[in-house]
Design goal:
13 helices
Length: 289
């Protein structure tokens, strides 16, 4: 059936209007603002061209936050996908208490991260925290997890993994459910009886679309880290946990340099777009639909 172009236009118009109003227009305003020296609350502004972008590349705090954000992204995405996939395979192999485990693992995703960050602050306290008490019991040296610049970012990454592995688990469970039982039975008849061989030759290739989606979602959520950094470390000690969104917030609402913060925001959006495209281009080749 041939659809009239006018009908197509009318059907697409609500989504197009929302896309323009909620996404493209704000990004365009931020892009224009990044070419000015506007300060929050100021009545006037000056057009300075690309000066904010030139300043970015000589700003050590920006470079540090960019590196920390990338390291956090790799740690959290890799950890959440690995733990989520492993837990999903274990839960799927036994039907007992499957609903309980699914709910328990998903609770961190549904909880308020700022409230949970306060709980983690108590757990990681250098003298009264449970983590250091357990380390002392097993004979290991306690650490100041949030104030030691060598481990502070890894501590925040562990919290991020704890939160996102539940989301990865639920998505992988849905992916495992979509694999037809006929294929599993056929693999058993073909002599693929060992669990590892069955995972490597049957389950993992068929989980390709799910894995692509999980990696994309976890990577984007990792790039958006702000709550735990702001509540637990405020980018310290010595900028060791400074991430891009926290730097943008500090420049915009602490130092009131909205033009400079807008330039960082444009770089952040471009980074998300670039990473998403690279991720899809590399993983799409290995994905079997």
């Amino acid at each position: 059936m041939r659809v009239h172009p006018l009908n197509t236009l009318m059907l697409l118009s609500p989504a197009t209007v929302l896309l323009v109003v909620l996404l493209l227009l704000p990004v365009a305003v931020v892009a224009v603002m990044s070419l000015t020296d506007w300060q929050f609350g100021a009545a006037t502004l000056n057009w300075i061209g690309l000066a904010n972008y030139v300043e970015l590349w000589s700003d050590p705090v920006f470079r540090k936050s960019l590196g920390n954000t990338f390291l956090y992204l790799v740690l959290v995405t890799g950890g959440a996908v690995s733990i989520g996939l492993g837990a999903a395979l274990l839960i799927e192999s036994d039907s007992q208490l499957r609903g309980f485990y699914r709910t328990a693992f998903f609770m961190p995703v549904a909880s308020t991260l700022i409230a949970m960050a306060v709980v983690w602050q108590f757990l990681l306290h250098p003298s009264a925290g449970m983590v250091n008490h357990v380390l002392t019991i097993v004979g290991l040296t306690p650490r100041d997890w949030l104030n030691d610049r060598h481990v502070a970012l890894y501590s925040l990454a562990a919290i991020g993994i704890w939160q996102m592995s539940g989301l990865a688990l639920v998505l992988f469970l849905a992916g495992l459910k979509s694999i037809p039982q006929d294929i599993r039975d056929a693999s058993a008849l073909d002599g693929i009886a060992h669990p590892w061989e069955r995972f490597r030759r049957i389950t993992w290739p068929l989980l390709g679309p799910t894995t692509l989606f999980v990696v994309t979602v976890c990577a984007i959520r990792a790039l958006q880290v702000f709550d735990t950094v702001h509540v637990l470390t405020r980018g310290g000690p010595n900028k060791s946990t400074e991430v891009l969104l926290h730097t943008i917030y500090a420049e915009g609402f602490s130092f009131f340099r909205m033009g400079y913060a807008s330039a960082m925001t444009i770089v952040f959006i471009a980074g998300i777009f670039f990473l998403t495209q690279v991720q899809h281009a590399t993983m799409e080749r290995k994905t079997h639909y």
